[in-house]
Amino acid sequence: MSPRTLFDKIWANHVVDTLEDGTAILYIDRHLVHEVTSPQAFEGLRLAGRKLRHPENTIAVVDHNVPTSDRTKPIEEADSRNQIETLERNVKEFGVPYFPLLSANQGIVHVVGPEQGISLPGMTIVCGDSHTSTHGAMGALAFGIGTSEVEHVMATQTILQKPAKNMKIAVEGTLAPGVTAKDVVLAIIGKIGTAGGTGHVIEFTGSAIRGLDMAGRMTVCNMAIEAGARAGLIAPDETTFEYVRGRRFAPKGADFDAAVAYWKTLVADEGAVYDTEVTLRAEEIEPCLTWGTSPETVLSINATIPDPANEPDEAKRAQLQRMLDYMDLKAGAKIAGTPVDVVFIGSCTNSRIEDLRAAASIAAGRKVADGVRAMIVPGSGLVKAQAEEEGLDRIFLDAGFEWREAGCSMCLGMNPDKLTPGQRCASTSNRNFEGRQGPGGRTHLLSPAMAAAAAVTGVLTDARELNA
Amino acid sequence: MEKFTTLTAIAAPLPEANIDTDKIIPARFLKTTKRTGLGVHAFDGMRYRPDGSENPDFVLNKEPYRKAQILITHENFGCGSSREHAPWALLDFGIRCVIAPTFADIFFNNSFKNGILPIRLPREVCDELMKDATQGANSRITVDLERQVVIRPDGEEISFEIDPLRKHLLLEGLDDIGQTLKREGAIEAFEAKRAKDEPWFPKIAV
Q1: Beta-strand pair A158-161/A141-144
Q2: Which of A371, A323, A324 is nearest to A343 (CA)?
Q3: What is the pLDDT of residues A88-99, one digit of tens each?
Q4: Does residue A279 lie within any of the structural domains?
């Protein structure tokens, strides 16, 4: 057999059958379900008189719509309440395991999966959400699907797909102090663009990637979709196995050992061929952020805002100008020092305990700047409890941050946490599209440390200056 | 799903790259539990001004493009979220075919499941079709899926590629769950082998 990539191996392990035109029926190990993209799928099953083939390989949570304020009160918005109640009726009718809103296990689906040991190395994992790529950090093949495919997985435990192309992105060397996983993935997207990974599964590798903890790896894989990739992957290693050990739904005892023996085979073979290869030097990556309304508009915090006049292509020049206008920024000005109105630390990209610790290390002993609203939204009830045990909540509250309940919150503007028109937000989330965080809102994507630095200074700031 | 065979329709020019799914349908409209009714919110941020009135400059607010069934656009259409609400919104508006140099993967997949045909053609061909589209009502474009050709108003035929399976499902208007379940025996065999090879594989029960 010719040398195979990690993607090739996981793919081959899950092909049930191949149709005449090369489309595979691919077996799905884990199906993660949330309230926004599932109601039409359950309705489809009901109309066709079908059941879930494997409810025991499925988990449902509510995250997108839920308010992150006081949970003991009823949900005010009728449409949101209806979507949540619809999910609760559906999980009951179809026998799907479910973490309800008031459970400590509730949280953002992409935080909950790894945290509970539901997402494991070597698995195929799908969810009706593009940030399913997050679970690739476990060494799993994980990708977002549409609602029709959600229904297909529910009914058959498979999806129809053609193999992706292989892409290798190596980040070699050692990251400078104060440079985080978020900076790494932003630098990657800045380099290859939002369509750079289209049709590919990206395997992230190299010494700087291997040196990341699991939270950092999840941040990197989370944003693989922002580079247009079908999925992001990181080969499982000792860091992965130690993370998995002891988690609620992970194999235990001899089963764990047997699983690890299998997981250790999940590495690319020597000489495996990739369709596309990209290498970055870790030392060259600086703390960075986005300035525009596409995740590829990445700048080092110490750089100046690009001038559209330097863009030769007319359509691109017009698009850059439109972004500058929308973001209310000036070409040629320094991005650092731009005042912010809101700081959002949360989302499936950056709401894990490690992210909150990084933000707290900046917030400790400081105060949120006058006129800035700063929110901390833990990724799950368990992350929140852990942070409270470590006293991080006190640090944030003393500094003037809001300490909220778990959910998608201000990442996507479909729950009460939204920007108002014209507000500028330093956000640890993953998308800066026009109106993403609320109509007319302006988003700068950055790391938890940089977001906390913006909160305490009131302007976009190099977090390293505060850590010195 | 409605069949897609041949479509002769007005095509709307949307010469912009990276039209993301938040542009096609903003998240605040995803609170529905139905597939229909999203057409009024398609391209909401481009189509309406902050006071809710129509933006007269946006192509789909102009005649004859209010009745457009084909969209001609630039690279990476549908990037961003996996929300199938994006093709649902397009379909509900009346769009049955999108022609672009490239599409984001998930949007591309989702379109087929809803009887929308996404066609990839080189940028320079899209630019020619864009010119045709700007001619308005006198300039209808035909898409013949059986023959895999786009026919310009002057009769020139441009062929396009499509997976045979996807073509078959679109032409027949078939739901692919039924197709997959015809292979249920293979799924059962896979599951039996899995149970033997990976006996440690955990189940979820809460």
Answers
A1: unpaired
A2: A371
A3: 999 999 999 999
A4: no
> Residue A90 belongs to a domain with what CATH number?
3.30.499.10
Q: Please, where are the H alpha helices in A328-468?
A: 353-363, 381-389, 392-399, 448-457, 464-467
Query: Among B45, B46, B55, B41, which Cα is nearest to B15's?
Result: B46
Q: Which residues pair with A165 in a beta bridge?
A: A200
If you ran DSSP here, which 8-state letter would residue A251 be given?
-
pLDDT on residue A335: 98
On the question of pLDDT at A317 being above 80, the answer is: yes
Q: Which of B200, B201, B203 to mutate to test the interface with A (most CBs of A within 10 A)?
A: B200
- What pLDDT sits at residue A1? 83
Of the residues A130, A147, A163, which one is the last residue of a structural domain? A163
Task: Identify all chain B residues contacting A228, using CB atoms and an 8 Å cutoff.
Answer: 76, 79, 104-105
Q: How far apart are the first and last CA of chain A?
A: 53
Taking residues A90-112, report their average pLDDT.
97
User: Do A434 and A292 lie in a common domain?
Assistant: yes
Domain boundaries, position A413: 288-467
Contact B177 A151 (CB under 8 A): yes
Binding residues of A for [4Fe-4S] cluster are 348, 408, 411
pLDDT, tens digit (0-9, with 9 covering 90-100), for A398-415: 999 999 999 999 999 999
Class of residue A311 by CB neighbours under 10 A (exposed 0-12, middle 13-18, buried 19+): middle
What pLDDT shows up at residue A468? 58
Asked if the Cβ–Cβ distance from A434 to B80 is below 8 Å, we say: no
DSSP states of A122-147 as a string?
Answer: T-EEEESSGGGGGGGGGT-EEEE--H
pTM for this prediction: 0.97
Residue of B177, B183, B188 for testing the chain A interface, max A β-carbons within 10 Å = B177
pLDDT, tens only, A124-183: 999 999 999 999 999 999 999 999 999 999 999 999 999 999 999 999 999 999 999 999
Q: Which two tokens stand for residue A137?
A: 């950090």
C-alpha span between B188 and B4 (Å, rounded): 33
Measured between CB atoms, does B162 come within 8 Å of chain A?
no
Instruction: Give, as one character, the DSSP assignment of residue A162.
Output: P
Q: In CATH, what is the architecture of B6-174?
A: Alpha-Beta Barrel (3.20)
Average pLDDT over residues A275-292: 98
> What is the residue extent of each domain of chain B?
6-174
Summarize the confidence of residues A347-355 as an average pLDDT: 98
Question: Can you tell me whether residue B85 is helix, strand or coil?
Answer: helix
Pairing of strands A24-27, A15-18: antiparallel
Residues 38-97, chain B, touching A (beta carbon < 8 A): 45, 50, 74-76, 79-84, 87
